Batch of 2 targets.
Target 1
Amino acid sequence: VTRVIAVDIGGTKIAAAIVAAPATIQARLTRATPRAGGSAVLETIAQMVDQLGPAAAIGVGSPGVISDGLVGSATDILPNWAGCQVRAGLERLTGLPVAVENDVHAMARGELTRGAARGLRDVLFVSVGTGVGGALAVGGRIVKGPRGAAGRFAHLLVPGDGPIPCGCGRRDHLEAHVSGPAIAASYAAGADQPSVVKLPDIVVRMGHGDAVARGVIEAAADLLGRALGGLLAATDGEAIVLGGGVAQVGAPFLDPVTRSVDVPVLAAGLGTDAPLIGAAALALDMGHDRDH
Ligand SMILES: [Zn+2]
């Protein structure tokens, strides 16, 4: 059985697992993400690979726009991450072949190969949490785009200004309306509560009959559904897979999205393992799918 090592780089922790083909996680490790820059992150990963090995290859899901194994641009989730040569650096440190892709692309790859979208080919993947992440599968392949930046649905233009800025600074983007912090800001304004109430508490309040809580969650889900309806019209997708912390609200969030589109809206199936399963699939596919 072929074994590969899958790595999911996050802002606070790095998860790594040894995965037997096609998708059995046999052992896993997590470490705190070093804050000392790209080479410290790569050295930590190399140590984890050493502990987990032996393996035939390494697949990595990483924050940022990834092209040709290089972090082209990244938010400040990791210090000095943009410009990091992830593939070349890890190949040098480990001696193994390495494939790298954006973490949302890896999450979508995991859901497409082993999760909620298994057996489907043309799917929109949306992760709604602290921010909004997206990915698009066409004909069974994750679309990367020439710069590795395809699927950034956060920046879809929507009517009106959201309560907080999108990660890019604009308020008329989807993320400014529907992210967890945006829903919390809408609640704080609507309930006239200066204190910061986070999304899980808003969900609890909704369950206790708080009409403002229900209103802001449903409004965000409705807007997300209408924006995704436009994307479906453009792409002829056959399903939507919705993941991330906000999607865990369940029916009150999923139902308004479902009402706005004419395809199934599926809850992500692999949870936080999706990027690891996707990174393993990337490593196993490396021969014919290297770093698309
Ligand atoms: Zn934006």
Note: The longest strand covers residues 24-32.
Target 2
Amino acid sequence: LHFSEKISKSDIKNFQWTQKKYRDIYEIKAILDTKKNSIIKPNGISQIKIAQFEPNIVRVVFTDKEYLKTEYKINNNLLTISCKQIDTKIYKNSKKPQNVKKYISKVRVSNDRLIVTNSVNIKNIKRLKVALDNGQKLTIFQIDARLKPFNKKEFKSKYVDEIKVLRYTPQITRIVFADRREIDVKYEIKNNKIFFKVKRLSKKPVKVTKKAPAKIMRPNGKIIVIDPGHGGRDSGAIGYKKYQEKRLVFKVATKAKDLLRQRGYKVYLTRYKDKFLKLKDRTEYANSKNADIFVSIHANSIVKSKQKSVQGVETFFLSPSRSERAKRVAMTENQADIKDKSWYSKSLTSNILVKSNMIASNKLAIDVQKNMLASLNNHYKNVVDMGVRKGPFWILVGAQMPSILVEVGYITHPTEGSRLQNTKYQNLLAKGIADGIDSYFIKNQN
Ligand SMILES: [Zn+2]
């Protein structure tokens, strides 16, 4: 049984019923992918039934007239249940197995062929195809013959990734061809020999689409305040084709908020509409909400002479130390509130900067920057990584929690500025920010 995510022992209950028939029952916390129940009638036991027993419990029931014993193994998202031992009485009651004389006497590989030699003439074999989660395609042949313990089980061939010969039930042997590419296996029966001829249909391995990792434990109830920069009479930077920073960052912030709420966080925006806010009020709002982190979203700009050459995504965290570049960006972003300059300057140099917050802010900045880049690089070429920097940002002063300022790109750059107006690009930015926040909380859970 394949599951969409990792399963553990605690997801499984195994018990037996012995009225009339013998039943070995597995209850698994899961949902069946199909509405249909399946009944399998393998050799050796009466039946195996797989059904949705309760909305979130799947039952696998092994039924037989006689006592049977099963055991199971878990390997990540794979559950293998096997009949460990079938009571010998089953054979006493039934007639003598008819195919005792049918056994496989030899298996060998010759170029692109696998040759199976049987003790008697083989009339029919069954073909099955299975695609595994890991991208492997299996072509399975079921032969009505015993596999003797001394038969070789695995074969090497340059025509296919793997060839395995398995004892499926005491009387049935399976030949499995496994490959990451599409393969075609033809067979021909000549008396007591079966010739399998394998051919790869594609040169490239089948691409595996990775599923989201199972059961991500997201820190529930963490509070995030997202601050869309500027607003109202303060339009922020004016970019390529007169695009306004305040509009762009509002869109990205709103998208990030929606994503994070879907993931179970409590998220507030400092502004829900196009409205002017003082820088100080933004962090005060975060403090009043008892936020765990504060993320201010901005877009960058530069003087006309450099507009064609400067672009990129960068994330800042508050620090009094200042590089020339950080100082320049901070100057631009600080302008909205020039009147409160003395308060900010004082705060910057005073003890308001808690050191632990600075370390956490740095970590948060690294995670957000990394994930924004990853998200954008998946779909766009030449996105410039300007990295994580420290800067004297007034907007971050006074936040009593780890806080960062994200510059989603230069709206003054012809290419980046146009991309920033694109909804798909904004979605990717928001996803990157949300992934970064997720990653930060998952790594720093307390
Ligand atoms: Zn700004």
Note: The first strand starts at residue 12 and ends at 17.
